[in-house]
Amino acid sequence: MQLVMVTIDCAEPRELARFWTAALRTEVSQDYNGDFVILAPWGGGSVGLGLQRVPEELVGKNRVHLDMHTDDREGEVDRLVGLGATIVDEQKMPGLSWVVLADPAGNVFCVGQQEQ
């Protein structure tokens, strides 16, 4: 068994795909009538991202979120905010700092950077 995709529930998959394709520098690989949109794996990885239409709104914090790392956390956060993300929080622990962001649909994800 292997992990091949993480799926985010949302109201408008095609709209959210515009944010995530730009954020992850990837493209839509499949679109099932706008109800389920699959993004190609990014960064040479093997895990894709699915965006699935659901009727209910997000209530509270999502139980699963994406964690991404970069060597330029500040630059990536600025880029993502420019794409429509919002900053939720900033956290730090020995050796790692990260920013918690929300995508345009309110789904939380993190961008972290190793610290020396």
Automatic annotation (TrEMBL):
Annotated CDD domains: VOC (cd06587)
Domain Glyoxalase-like residue range list: 5-111
SUPFAM superfamilies tied to this protein: Glyoxalase/Bleomycin resistance protein/Dihydroxybiphenyl dioxygenase
Keyword vocabulary terms for this entry: Lyase
Domain of life: Bacteria
InterPro entries attached to this UniProt entry: Glyas_Bleomycin-R_OHBP_Dase, Glyoxalase_6
The protein, known as: Enzyme related to lactoylglutathione lyase
Lineage: Bacteria, Bacillati, Actinomycetota, Actinomycetes, Pseudonocardiales
